[in-house]
Specification:
This protein has about 290 residues and is α/β, with parallel strands linked by helices. The chain has one domain: 3-Layer(aba) Sandwich (Rossmann fold). It is built from 12 helices and 9 strands. It holds the Pfam family F420_oxidored. One of its GO terms (molecular function) is oxidoreductase activity.
Length: about 290
């Protein structure tokens, strides 16, 4: 399995094939590349979730519909996830974080940075790990290596998980739009999400998952560049919302669950990534959802 990691400013935009007999070409935003190994949409595999909040639940729902087994976990114990497991159906079960990591082919981590010290490092060794989190000092406390911009939050996660392969994804979109904007392969209104990581094979694996869930991907480089999809950047949340009401939004969480969202194609995502200007991470504030 191989892929080309683009240099800064180059973005490999890929749609992984659903039909191995006649795979569609990989779409490119900036340059043509040799096609890499494709995966079938009827993927059989297990996705583990450490963190089963709004983002984790949204991704898990799409994964079950796509034919994956999912193993959910949180910090409160498997028994607290019984209702969610019932809602998702027979493709889902609950476990501890260590069990979810051990049993999974790929793991989605969607937890605050305050939970990093409790991650099952050994169980995650050798796994591709999708990091769906963001750094919010108000919630996570101030972390010197992030406040100084020495590291991005995903690079910090990679440091904590030295034997795992971290890929940044799902961190720049409202939870309800993960399902609302998902589309079949080659749909004219299919959207893209940005991904970043240091391991080319892991990014290919993450892109294959996103493709099976209904999303194109824009590979914008390494974890050191993952700030380009962080809060307050051009690609963060707003493009996927569409036009805001003229009277404004007084209850964002309620409003965002009722909108269809606005498709954001891969070429647009690549341009938004290029337009990003790095702001001090220490100044990042939690979004006002009231």
């Amino acid at each position: 399995m191989s892929a080309t990691v683009p240099a800064e400013g180059d973005h490999a935009v890929s749609t992984q094939a659903r039909d191995l007999a006649a795979p569609p070409p990989i779409r490119q935003a900036d340059r043509r590349q040799p096609p890499s190994e494709r995966r079938s949409a009827a993927m059989q595999g297990t996705i583990g979730f450490i963190g089963s909040g709004m983002i984790g639940t949204a991704v898990a729902g799409l994964a079950v519909k796509a034919g994956y087994e999912v193993v959910l976990s949180n910090s409160r114990g498997p028994e607290t996830l019984a209702g969610l497991v019932a809602d998702l159906g027979p493709g889902a079960r609950a476990a501890t974080p260590a069990e979810a990591a051990r049993d999974a082919d790929l793991v989605v981590i969607a937890v605050p940075l305050t939970a990093l010290d409790r991650l099952p490092v050994e169980a995650l060794a050798g796994k591709t790990v999708i990091d769906a989190g963001n750094y919010y000092p108000q919630r996570d406390g101030h972390l010197p290596e992030l406040d100084s911009d020495e590291l991005t939050s995903s690079a910090l996660l990679q440091q904590r998980l030295p034997e795992s392969r971290v890929v940044k994804a799902f961190n720049n979109i409202a939870f309800s739009l993960i399902a609302a904007l998902a589309r079949p392969a080659n749909a004219p209104d299919r959207s893209a999400l940005p991904i970043a990581g240091d391991d080319a094979a892991a990014k290919h694996e993450a892109a294959a998952l996103l493709d099976a869930l209904g999303w194109d991907t824009v590979d914008f480089g390494s974890l050191a560049e993952s700030w380009r999809s962080a809060p307050d950047t051009p690609v963060y949340v707003m493009p996927y919302l569409g036009e805001l009401p003229a009277e404004g939004v007084t209850d964002f969480l309620s409003w965002v669950t009722q909108i269809p969202g606005a498709p954001v194609p891969a070429d647009t995502v690549a341009k938004l990534i290029d337009a990003a200007v790095r702001l001090p991470a220490a100044a990042t504030e939690l979004p006002n959802l009231a």
